[in-house]
Design brief:
The complex is a heterodimer.
Chain A lengths: L10 H9 L2 H10 L1 E3 L8 H20 L9 H10 L4 H29 L7 H23 L4 H12 L8 H9 L6 H30 L18 E3 H26 L29 H9 L3 H13 L4 H4 L11 H22 L4 H28 L10 H4 L6 H11 L1
Chain B lengths: L1 H23 L20 H13 L25 H9 L2 E4 L8 E4 L13 H7 L18 H9 L16 E2 L7 E2 L20 H16 L3 H30 L7
Helix pairs in contact in B: 2-6, 5-6
Classes of the chains: A mainly alpha, B mainly alpha.
Chain lengths: 420, 259
């Protein structure tokens, strides 16, 4: 961040900035040179920051009224929905906000996969991102337990039971996680504590994620290194700020539609039945955003191997910068990778679909094939493709492809005006 | 931008398919016009008041409604009984209160601030009185069933003689909309079972519709506010988005890149 010097104009500002360079930081953030060809897939970073802050603010408000006790949690949620002023609004924003958060994070991750944003020199940004994603899943899972409905209780039972697959110490770990011999009040109170803690860990990691981003700067759709600042970049403010705001507002319209008109469609009806340890629901289904991994878990007949497969499916992403051997970042110049990319997208969507269905017959078969392909993509296709693929010629600068073949800006401008 | 929207909408459509197919399941539910659906959906006040009458005269002898208070009956967006009416309704129930200064529990007439009186002392008592089945609390019942209002509406009209080959145990009834078709609740409604105070003809269909509307309100007491606020919020966001779009175009016109 020491790539430019900044001196505040006022005396007081200079005095303060010499002691704590917050003004330098603010100046860096406003001037931050950003590639000018970023498309709308790049606006999801800002959208995700908005999602995190929304979850924290609504979550704090809910925590003021929620009671983390097995006998009172369900009732306290109904109290929020009925008697707390605009409690229904805050809870519906929080509950749907989790889904919106995951929708945005999946787009953000798949954008990175398409444009090769995880490649050198951005590996650390990518790995921090994977840790954030893991923490998000933990936070979302524990948050879903808090209303203490049937899906809360049985979801918690199924997921914590996965640890029993660990040889020798598994059973002990599960008892330790539960704080007893079944999911009960001690489980609920610790989940509440952790659900409260994790978002702040995520916030800290987001700061590191952005810090690591600001060292090399943004990748871009062309995927080439950009000189900063240059004709290829624009200052973050106002250009990117206004564009991110526009995209965020469109996102908020979709968000508002869910909150105000179909607030329960993404949840499961059984979670409006109070938790009952004696009655097991017909189908125990996780929230939609965990379904692909749930499908992978269930596609392996052995419990321990299933858990390992599920965890590997996430952790394999951390090794992606080294599994992808291609030097070219953007899929725009990798005709074969582009096709495999879309097959992967379809594969993950199929996994999500079969994850929601009972694990039997055709569904199970499809889940197994899709799971195998998922690992094949990362472990075989990507390393081989990088070595074999014939890539398209990449442009020398961002200005070149946009203005149609010439690197000379002045000529290009003349050309453009003569066309008009 | 075009490309972006095309891909995004495809993915959303794909994600929405299993959700909607899940809700439809196998049985086709009976359909009716619900006044509370749609962007401006509101409750039919008459249906809510009649629905309360069906609940209190038919359902309430077995089904509790533990998250509602009598004051809710006169609140905006609900059945909107007058405060006097709600007070009279509350006073018609005996509420156990106490302990008093002698350490004794006592009964008194209900007040607006009281929760709906429960038909049974506890779950065990409810089960004992109903052949082992617990009549579920009705406060959030429509949100706790996959088919929602359509399911409840259909279930109430779904009692039939069992098809040939199906034998039912003592105290079990056949209902074509019930999951597994076997239900412990006997057919609760019959034509003319109650006399509506507003003179409406109390057919099974009418009572089913009214009581289901009432249950939708008990599950979502702020539905009307939600719809009104939602419309305003979305209109506001759309206008702001348009304004920001033109500001963005203006700002980006300084560089020769399209946004």
């Amino acid at each position: 961040m020491s790539d430019h010097e900044y001196t505040p104009t006022s005396k007081a500002g200079k005095w303060f900035n010499d002691r704590l360079p917050l003004l330098t930081l603010a100046n860096h953030l406003t001037d931050y040179p950003t590639p000018k060809n970023l498309n709308y897939w790049w606006t999801f970073g800002g959208i995700l920051t908005f999602c995190l802050i929304t979850q924290i603010v609504t979550g704090l408000t809910l925590a003021m009224h929620y009671i983390a006790h097995a006998d009172m949690a369900f009732e306290s949620v109904e109290h929020i929905m009925r008697d707390v002023n605009y409690g229904w609004l805050i809870r519906y924003i929080h509950a749907n906000g989790a889904s919106m958060f995951f929708l945005a994070v999946y787009i953000h991750i798949f954008r990175s996969l398409f444009y090769g944003s995880y490649k050198a020199p951005r590996e650390i940004i990518w790995i921090i991102g994977i840790i954030i994603y893991l923490l998000m899943m933990a936070a979302a899972f524990m948050g879903y337990v808090l209303p203490w409905g049937q899906m809360s209780f049985w979801g918690a039972t199924v997921i914590t039971n996965l640890f029993s697959a660990i040889p020798l110490v598994g059973e002990g770990i599960v008892t330790w996680l539960w704080g007893g011999y079944s999911v009960d009040n001690p489980t609920l109170t610790r989940f509440f504590t952790l659900h409260y803690l994790i978002p702040f860990l995520i916030l800290g990691l987001v700061v590191l994620h952005i810090w690591a981003l600001h060292v090399p700067g943004n990748n871009n759709p062309v995927g080439i290194d950009v000189k900063k600042p240059s004709k290829d970049t624009v200052p973050f403010h106002p250009y990117i700020v206004i564009k991110d705001t526009f995209a965020l507002l469109m996102f908020m319209i979709v968000f508002a539609f869910f909150v105000f008109y179909t607030p329960n469609i993404l949840g499961h009806a059984d979670n409006y039945i109070e938790a009952n340890p004696l009655v097991t629901p017909a189908h125990i289904v996780p929230e939609w955003y965990l379904l692909p991994f749930y499908a992978i878990l269930r596609s392996v007949p052995d419990k321990l191997l299933g858990v390992i497969a599920m965890l590997s499916a996430i952790l394999i992403l951390a090794a992606l910068p080294w599994l992808d051997t291609s030097k070219i970042r953007s899929a725009v110049f990798r005709p074969l990778y582009k096709q495999f990319y879309w097959i992967l997208v379809a594969d993950v969507l199929i996994l999500g679909y079969v994850g929601a269905m009972p694990a039997e017959g055709l569904y199970l078969l499809v889940a197994r094939v899709a799971t195998a392909y998922y690992f094949l993509h990362f472990l075989v296709i990507l390393p081989v493709l990088g070595l074999k693929e014939k890539t398209l010629p990449i442009p020398l600068s961002i200005t070149e492809p946009i203005l149609g073949g010439t690197a000379n800006l002045a000529t290009a401008r003349n050309k453009e005006s003569s066309i008009k | 931008m075009k490309n972006f929207l095309r891909i995004l909408s495809l993915v959303i459509v794909f994600l929405a398919t299993p959700l909607s197919s899940h809700a439809a399941e196998k049985v086709e539910y009976l359909k009716t016009d619900w006044s509370f659906k749609g962007l401006f959906g509101k409750f039919d006040r008459g249906a809510l008041q009649r629905g309360y009458q069906v609940y209190t005269e038919v359902c309430a002898s077995c089904h509790s409604m533990k998250y509602l208070s009598y004051r809710n009956l006169s609140e905006k967006g609900g059945p909107e009984f007058t405060e006097q009416q709600a007070k009279a309704i509350a006073a018609s129930f005996d509420v156990t209160d106490g302990p008093n200064s002698d350490g004794e529990m006592f009964t008194r007439p209900g007040k607006l601030s009281d929760k709906f009186v429960m038909p049974y002392e506890n779950v065990k008592a409810a089960q004992a009185a109903n052949g082992g089945a617990y009549p579920p609390d009705m406060s959030v019942l429509v949100k706790a069933r996959g088919g929602g209002v359509d399911y409840i509406y259909s279930l109430l009209q779904g009692y039939e003689d069992p098809p040939v080959g199906i034998t039912l145990d003592e105290g079990v009834h056949y209902n074509k909309y019930m999951y597994g078709n076997k239900i412990k609740m006997s057919n609760p409604l019959s034509d003319g079972l109650i006399e509506y105070s507003d003179g409406t003809n109390a057919t099974v269909e009418q009572m089913s519709k009214d009581v289901t509307t009432f249950l939708m309100w008990t599950a979502e007491p702020h539905l009307e506010t939600r719809h009104q606020m939602g419309f305003k919020a979305i209109v506001y966001l759309i206008i702001l988005t348009i304004l920001v779009y033109f500001s963005m175009k203006r700002i980006w016109s300084r560089v020769e890149t399209k946004v």
